[in-house]
What we know:
The protein has 182 residues and is an alpha+beta fold. The chain has helices at 10-25, 75-91, 95-120; strands spanning 31-68, 124-155, 158-164, 171-178. It has a four-stranded antiparallel β-sheet with strand order 3-2-1-4, with no helix packed on it.
Amino acid sequence: MKFIPRHISTLARLAIAGSAATLLASPVLAETRFEYADVIESTPVYRTVEVTVPREECWNEEVASHRRARPESRTPALLGTIIGGALGNAVGHGKSNKRVGTVVGAVLGLSIGRDIVAANSHGRVTEYETVRQCETIYDYHEEERLIGYQVRYRYNNEDYSVRMDNDPGQQVRVRVDVQPVF
């Protein structure tokens, strides 16, 4: 602050210095205006992109389901046990032999009864039903997408180039800033 005389107070010095700095840095000294420049060339710019398109693909499918042909009856096994026990009892001599014969006959009768049930049982029945199945399939393809325009224009006998979102046509609007250099 050598340019401010010493006899001015410190507060006044700060006020003068702040005002000078504000004037020098202020855009008030700059002039902004808009003009038009001639477009020399406007070239579309494309980018190749991969596009994913989902689609649903469905088909009918035969699905097997199993069930028992009919409920298993326990009657043949019970009858086999009773008949086997009675035969074993009739064949045995003496009290202890009759008991052993009854038990052995009952076990054999149970086994024969189970075999009869298994032979008469048709096991499981398989039934088929049609079920609609669907899945998402993704198709991929490439396509060119316009991403902007590379524009060459001439202003004040100088050529400039800029990337723009849209084609400007025959002229492009430019901002001209005039600012003094200190």
